[in-house]
Amino acid sequence: MAENQKQQRFQGKVVIITGSSAGIGQAAAIEFAKDGAAVVIHGRDGQRINETEQKMLALEVPADRILKVQGPIEEEKTAQKLVEETLNKFGRIDVLPGNDEPMDIVNLDHIYNVNMRSIVVLTNLAMPHLEKSRGNVLNISSCASHRYMSARVRPYYGVMKAALDHWTRIMALICGEKSGVRVNSINPGPIADTLINERGGQRGPVEQQYGNSAVLKRLGLPSEVVPAMKLLCSDDGSFITGVCLLVDGGVKSVGRELSPDEENAEECNHFAQFAPVSLLPSPFPREAFEKAIAVQQAMQLLYFRVGCDFDFLFEAYKDVVKTDKQIKQMVDILREVQKQGIKQPQTLLIMRSDYMLNKVGSNKENGNDQYEIKQIEANTGAIGGLGNDRRTSELHQRLLKRIGMDPTNAPQNEGDAHLINSLFMAWKAFDNSDALLVILSHVKFSYKYELRKIEDELDRLSGGQLRVAYVSLKDGYYDFKLAADSSLLLNGKVVGVVYSLISALGYKANEEEMEARKMIELSTAIKAPSLAIAISSSKKIQQLLASPGGVERFFPDPTEAEQRQDEKTEQIIADAIENPSNYVLKPNGECGGNNYYDDKLVEKLRTMANNQEERAAHILMQKLHPMITKNYFLRSSILPQFGFVVSELGVYGTLMGNMLDRTVSYNAQSGHLLRTKLAGANEGGISVGTAVGDSPYLF
């Protein structure tokens, strides 16, 4: 790697960075390596450690300057392994930035082990070697140690970080006098990657809730923390020790405790705000809308049949499982289901098909642009937000009437009522009036009021018999039990239906959460949907269905399927590198906000050039040229925004079927959504803050 003298501050130095598989730790590992250091990267997840390594190799960091160590840092054997393997490979230790991995934990002992004890153990093991090299220690603390920001949500976390700061000052005194080893800590504020990952990838709510806690009114980036880390660890900071340096965007300077709705809105009575919405419905061609509606039942039947074909899924993911731990774990669960036999053949597919308009030319007679409708995504996993879609349509119909326009051009939208009836139908099919309907959701969930509406309607439909329970995957690990007859029990009560609002493809479940998924799949509960169907709509499956013969496997009748021609992978990749603005690279489990565009797309493709397994975990798609209109965006606490916009149509439907004989008892389309974003924006998710709810005005 071509590096000038200024960039070589850590030439010949050996740096151990715990928790370097993501966030600040990953950014630090990359930057220290770019500055010439030999870097030891560590984490719990082998796949994410490999991702960090690949990013370093893509920047031409020599492989012999990288050491990977995997294991839970709270276990002493991991600390010993870190020190021993570092000495075996590099013969010395110069810098020890101790970075805990972000975890949503409430157990005091666990927090102590991760945030305090593990650092003390690792420091003690490494200290003799740091004394030899006159190295230094950098602890990764938090601004939570300086203020009350964690008092309600994670009180133990703030206490342990304060203890770590005090440990830093004490060790600086002891080590400075004894050996000249410097000891400092870095105290980051709200950092985007960490907070967004902890909250299921929902960027918008996280930025609004936590960005406002900083003077700079935004979240920080891992790359903005690393320069301060490098200063404290390099010779440029040779006269700095015992310092706890805040890199928090001014969080501490605010000088007050956060209010409840800023710190932990779900515990506050003043939590509700209106969902982001467009002022008026956006124009959408009637013919394209009706075509998308008409094909929805066939789409549902297709993905139901895909989910029933376990052998097809195993073959489809045979390369993906080599690099994607999440997919591998889910495929392993399906293999176990296949081995034991499907305990509950009935499943409820809840589907949304997403479409965009694509310009194909102009009308020769009037010069107007002509558009075709293109499917861009199929979703068979976590489908929520239907209540907001109906209310948006009703709002726009009222506004159209007030301004003298025909409200019937904004079609009726009753997807939420259809969903509720489908869930009730599944509960009745279980044929046990005492059985629970479990809604599987994140602890922090944006649509909680919508869920209460679902619960109330189910209570009404069942005459008060149907009881709903809300469970997270984490709680499910402790509260679910499999009975001898394969019944799923929640605290001793039989579960009849599990309605999942946690994306199988988008949410990174830990080992315990994956075990909860396994219990659900091996049970007699009716899944809405089953795991097989939930992973049947990934980008990889969509790619295979688009290839010659892909659809025909599931629709043998040639009139039901359309033959499509595929292009050679290498030619497409070469064109994407040459013309990145024409493409988007999507990971297999993309759920919004994780795509690669433009220069980042080129960098990622080059990183994967010699890694066929990682390439198999991504899908390269050609960008469309959508219809551009104008509209106003209305968001809570923000002035209305006017601009050029593009819209994405989603069409809802449900299917009830038997996974053993593949018969279908119910298949219907009902409901739609329109998500609209600014024309210049790449991502377009409502929950991530880059789009608004909209409805189509048909013309």
UniProtKB/TrEMBL annotation:
It catalyses: gamma-L-glutamyl-L-cysteine + glycine + ATP = glutathione + ADP + phosphate + H(+). Pfam families: adh_short_C2, GSH_synth_ATP, GSH_synthase. The keyword Nuclease does not apply. Residues 452-533 form the Glutathione synthase substrate-binding domain. It comes from the Eukaryota. Keywords: ATP-binding, Glutathione biosynthesis, Ligase, Magnesium, Metal-binding, Nucleotide-binding. One of its GO terms (molecular function) is metal ion binding. Its cofactor is Mg(2+). Pathway: Sulfur metabolism; glutathione biosynthesis; glutathione from L-cysteine and L-glutamate: step 2/2. It is an enzyme of class 6 (ligase). Its EC number is 6.3.2.3. Belongs to the eukaryotic GSH synthase family. This is Glutathione synthetase. It comes from Heterodera trifolii.
